[in-house]
Amino acid sequence: MSESTAATAAAKGGLQGVVAAQSDICFIDGDAGRLVYRGYEIGDLVENASFEETAYLLWDGKLPNKTELATLKQQLSASMALPAHVLAVIKALPAGTQPMDVLRTAVSALAGGDTDLTSNEAAANRRKAVRLTAQFPTIVTAYHRIRNNQQPIAPDPSLSIAGNFLYMLNGKKPHETLVRVMDAALVLHAEHGMNASTFTARVIAATLADMHASITGALGALKGPLHGGANEAVMHLLLQCGDADSAERKIKEMLANKQKVPGFGHRVYRTFDPRATFLRKMSKQLGEAAGNSKWYEMSERLIPILRDTKKPTGEPLGLNPNVDFFSASAYYTMDIPLDLFTPIFGVARVTGWAAHVMEQHKNNRIIRPTDDYTGPFGKKVEPIEQRA
Ligand SMILES: CC(=O)SCCNC(=O)CCNC(=O)[C@H](O)C(C)(C)COP(=O)(O)OP(=O)(O)OC[C@H]1O[C@@H](n2cnc3c(N)ncnc32)[C@H](O)[C@@H]1OP(=O)(O)O
Ligand SMILES: O=C([O-])CC(=O)C(=O)O
Q: Where along the chain is the active site annotated (predicted)?
């Protein structure tokens, strides 16, 4: 970044372009639309590696061999069931509690009773990463069933994380194609450098707080509609519009009113988010398989509007879909309830958060930036009766 561009970015706030850590985990080239996890291109991983292999890669820095993968799968299967006190916490939450809040609360509750809680050593962190990754799908699906007056389904040790998520959600063995789509979505969402939730996790970890505290905080950041919450917001928008013509009108109106359109734009990508390229294909294929391409086609209609609409300067807006855009129509076509879209993001991203917490703990310095004070000086405390 040139000095003048850096100065403009600094004035806008949001830590744009600020290097917050040295990291071996993820590389993003925002101009080229390139995403790399530990040296592997995202396209290679999504086509040739499972979510479990990706988790291993993120945590251990290498792809597992057969024995290592079998061990990880066994460890994950052994950790999927929730402790009784966590199920009790989930059941005690008031009706209507949002699934992201349930997930955050349950992760916080999982700290109680975790045998490694107080250790930030690498081996303890690795065990906690496995347990949390295994427990996330169980929390999300158990809550969904409980809120619908259904019994939670016990995880099936023969299924993957993706397979178990669909199985525990619907109570029947999922079709292989759907498991493959869900697995690919999890690989695509697993990691993304110093995004807001990962940065949050690292800030918490850098105080030497533990993995559960860091991931509880990360979930709070992921919930927001400018971050992970955008996938749910995209689907609400598509449903509210109902058809492509109304959606086109609505988007133009939003742009004219300077409103942010969910699922578009990115702090780093200046071109198509490479993950959106894969999710776009998945949304199309799912629509065709379901005999309902309406949501995919509606989504396609919006792309040229956000790319080509002119700014007052005459330049095109140049906004592209991000990871949250096509995941919305893909998950909706898979019959996944809207308010589980962001929790699914969490089911994937817990692996990336855990990798960053481990990296932070390995080479730590507290993260404490500074601010540019713009308030007054010289005030004196007046007696309360004299205050306006
Ligand atoms: C997993 C993820 O977190 S991916 C992102 C998910 N979030 C969303 O989809 C929400 C919609 N998108 C946004 O709000 C933003 O694009 C963000 C939060 C992702 C990135 O924010 P920033 O880095 O601050 O945006 P940036 O500075 O590049 O914006 C440039 C301009 O494009 C505009 N813009 C950016 N995104 C959008 C959008 N989705 N709709 C309309 N205008 C937008 C900005 O308002 C800004 O306009 P200005 O120059 O007239 O002020
Ligand atoms: O990197 C970001 O700012 C947001 C994002 O796409 C992600 O977390 O996947």
A: 266, 324
- Cα end-to-end distance, the chain, whole Å: 47
Q: What is the DSSP string of 185-211?
A: HHHHHS--TT-HHHHHHHHHHTTT--H
Answer whether residue 9 shows pLDDT above 80: no
Please give the DSSP secondary-structure letter assigned to residue 214: H
**227 Cα–ligand 2 center, Å:** 7
pTM score, two decimals? 0.97
Structural domains in the chain plus CATH codes = 23-223+346-362 (1.10.580.10), 230-333 (1.10.230.10)
Amino acid at 208: L
Distance from C-alpha of 349 to C-alpha of 353, rounded to nearest angstrom: 6
* Four-residue CA torsion sign, 245, 248, 252, 254: positive
79-88 pLDDT, tens digit per residue, is 999 999 999 9
Q: Is 356 in the pocket of ligand 2 (CB under 6 A)?
A: no
- What letter does residue 316 receive in the DSSP assignment? B
230 lines ligand 2 (CB under 6 A): no
